[in-house]
């Protein structure tokens, strides 16, 4: 990757690493549907403001908006809700580690969807290491029959599947759209989706009552969605979905540290071992021997 790619990559990792902390704070006051709806709304408004500043125009063809209507909820609203709902049952640190599985699923999906990104022995080994990390991370709750916690963890894993599949689809079907407008379109359709579904699916659909919840919603929306998604789509277009989704491997480090420090979350050996295995997975996948 070029230096400009690394700068965006690291900034994106820092922004998204903090999101798990703010989600955990937000769902203490409002439901996950409500938090996700406000996050998508603030994210869409931020993306629109950026596009307006850049003097960009929205796509006018129905085909593009049809793609946005499907990929917006699939890439944003649904996985964000799943993580928010999952964090009502699990620690933010665990959620951040499990969300680090996105590149593993991206590898699998890209193998069948993109002709030049096939699975090799090296990639298979990396996948096995990563999935071993998932099993280690979940082992404590599985053995203890902690059904709520296991359900919350599966929700985050399902969110990772949505992120992975949509990342490949976005690269495949939206290459004709400007990076900023890609983010605007997907965020607009995600916001519309959540504000239609949210008030119906979640009763009561609550408005944040605490200042800290509004801060969480604004942080998640403005930075974690509006700015971050434009950065992510830029990386997907520039370096491809598999490499771009490797940014999720920065999540466990920041997520675990922030969860332990600010939320007094428990630092178990399963969490540490699972984190190390999941982080080791992309190192194995991307390792290249020096040729002499």
Structure, described:
By secondary structure, the protein is mainly α. The protein has one domain (3-285). 78% of the residues lie in helices and 0% in strands. The model has no long low-confidence stretch (mean pLDDT 85).
Overall 3D shape = globular
Q: Which structural class matches the secondary elements? A: mainly alpha
Please tally the β strands and state the result. 0
Distance between the termini: 22 Å
Q: Please state roughly what percent of the residues sit in beta strands, choosing from under 5%, 5-15%, 15-25%, 25-35%, 35-45% or over 45%.
A: under 5%
Q: How many domains make up the 3D coordinates? A: 1
**Which sheet architecture does the biggest sheet show?**
none
Q: Helix-strand pattern, N to C?
A: HHHHHHHHHHHH
Quaternary form? single chain
Helix tally equals 12
| Mean pLDDT over the full residue set | 85
- Helical residues, percent: over 70%
> In terms of per-residue confidence, which ranges show pLDDT below 50 for 5 or more consecutive residues?
none
Radius of gyration over C-alpha positions, nearest whole angstrom: 18 Å
What are the key terms here?
single chain, about 290 residues, mainly alpha, about 80% helix, globular
SSE order and pairing:
Layout (H helix, E strand, L loop, with lengths): L2 H24 L5 H22 L8 H25 L5 H7 L3 H12 L7 H23 L3 H27 L5 H23 L9 H29 L1 H4 L6 H13 L5 H18 L6
């Amino acid at each position: 990757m070029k230096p400009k790619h690394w700068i965006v990559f690291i900034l994106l990792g820092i922004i998204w690493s903090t999101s798990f902390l703010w989600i955990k704070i937000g769902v203490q006051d409002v439901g996950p549907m409500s938090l996700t709806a406000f996050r998508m709304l603030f994210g869409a408004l931020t993306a629109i403001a950026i596009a307006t500043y850049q003097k960009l125009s929205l796509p006018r063809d129905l085909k593009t908006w049809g793609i946005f209507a499907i990929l917006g909820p699939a890439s944003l609203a649904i996985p964000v809700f799943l993580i928010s709902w999952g964090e009502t049952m699990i620690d933010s640190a665990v959620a951040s580690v499990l969300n680090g599985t996105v590149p593993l699923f991206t590898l699998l999906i890209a193998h069948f969807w993109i002709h030049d990104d096939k699975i090799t022995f090296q990639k298979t080994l990396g996948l096995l290491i990563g999935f071993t990390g998932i099993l280690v991370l979940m082992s404590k709750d599985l053995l203890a029959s902690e059904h709520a916690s296991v359900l919350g963890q599966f929700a985050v894993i399902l969110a990772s599947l949505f992120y992975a599949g949509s990342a490949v689809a976005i690269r495949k079907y939206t290459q004709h759209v400007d990076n900023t407008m890609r983010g605007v379109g997907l965020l607009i359709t995600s916001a519309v989706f959540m504000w239609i579904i949210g008030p119906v699916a979640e009763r009561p659909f609550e408005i944040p009552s605490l200042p800290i919840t509004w801060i969480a919603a604004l942080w998640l929306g403005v930075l974690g969605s509006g700015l971050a998604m434009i950065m992510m789509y830029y990386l997907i277009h520039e370096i491809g979905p598999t490499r771009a989704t490797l940014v999720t491997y920065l999540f466990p480090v920041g997520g675990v540290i922030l969860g332990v420090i600010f939320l007094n979350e428990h630092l178990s050996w399963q969490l540490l071992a699972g984190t190390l295995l999941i982080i080791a997975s992309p190192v194995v996948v991307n390792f290249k021997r020096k040729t002499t």
